[in-house]
Amino acid sequence: MKFSPNTRYAIRVLFELGGLSEPVSTAYLAEKTGMSLRTVENIHAVLRRENITAGTVGAKGGIQLLQPLADISLGTLVYLFDDGVEFAVCCGDKSNECPNQAECGIRSVWKTVSSTVQSQLDAISLDAILQQYPTESHGIVLNKFHPEDAVAIKGLKK
User: Fold this and answer.
1) Strand, coil or helix: what is 107?
2) 14 and 58 share a domain?
3) Averages of pLDDT over each 10 residues, the chain, 158 residues
4) Does any domain span residue 111?
5) Which stretch of DSSP H or E encloses residue 56?
6) Which of 52, 77, 92, 125 could form a disulfide with 47 if both were Cys (CB 3.0 to 4.6 A apart)?
7) Can you tell me the distance from the alpha carbon of 110 to that of 87, in angstroms, rounded to the nearest whole number?
């Protein structure tokens, strides 16, 4: 399983925001994370729609977290940016139709595996990741942590 670039970008944006107490501009986030301004704006649009971040316009405006990192799970981000965990095309939330459903003997297995992995990702908070991988620079783990390794981290719970 591999997370999409947008899921990985969202994690980086949220790690950056989690270390700040004031709203910051999308330009600031783009510079700090090495992403394009458009990518940061697109990530923020999804996070804002889900009430994870908020944005205000003006000289003192910017993007800020609405939820603590302890309340944001990897599972939430995978669901938002990857449409959840899906090990077979016919097993996702948005694809319940399968031309071979009547004679397929493995669909239920893939659905169970997908659900189990999603549950494990739901149990890993972004805050738990930061605690597992502490750094000297205000808690940001942009270069040391690879989200695709998160499932292997032991003892991480929300």
Assistant:
1) helix
2) yes
3) 88 91 92 92 96 90 94 94 76 64 78 87 91 57 46 41
4) yes
5) strand 53-56
6) 52
7) 6
